[in-house]
Predict the structure.
Amino acid sequence: MLKILFFGQLKEITKTDSLEIDIIQKGKKMNTVAELRGLLQAKSDIWNEYLAYGKALVAVNQEMTSDDAEINETDEIAFFPPVTGG
Amino acid sequence: MSHFTQISVQSQDFDFAHEYQKLRDSNNSDGALVTFVGLVRDINLQQSVSSLFLEHYPAMTKKVLNNIVEEARTKWQLGSVSIIHRIGQLQVSEQIVFVGVTSQHRQSAYHANEFIMDYLKTQAPFWKKETTTQGEQWIDAKVSDIKKSQDWS
């Protein structure tokens, strides 16, 4: 299973801090972050808006990466708004 | 004592004098010690701020801060480096972040300290939510911070 994490405003607005998703969807394996993002965005208008490319950054196994990054079965994939520490 | 890297993410406050002393005591060969402390401001975007909440992604935060220090060490000859970042609920004028760097001469310490803060602001997974007179709101990332961190590469 893929472990999906949300942080910051995204976590609050979707009322979701984590979820598990099978990498196989409708008999087909998802290969990239972009495919996973699309699947999550399809959940509702709010998810569609706040998970949009450019609005939510992504980290695969705690490394910030881009939408063409490959994903694998047991990855931890986090989506979050641009960071505002310091 | 010898040179060290210290990275801490914590809810409790830090004692500046103590952190400064640790850096000083770490060696006798460095002639420069540069520190930065970030504080909670009482005004942001023309609104009066009463407190700040800081969230982070624990598994990723330490990795990123370690990477930032390693990157700084490849760019400049540094002695000791210390980063402390607070999380949780903070009141106005409280300390948020400490960055301390030692080096033989001042230029490396100045540059590395600024580099670490610039990268931390755009790479480290922290998020601020502020409580203002208008209610609670998540702070948006600043384009100027993103641009500044790009200037280093």
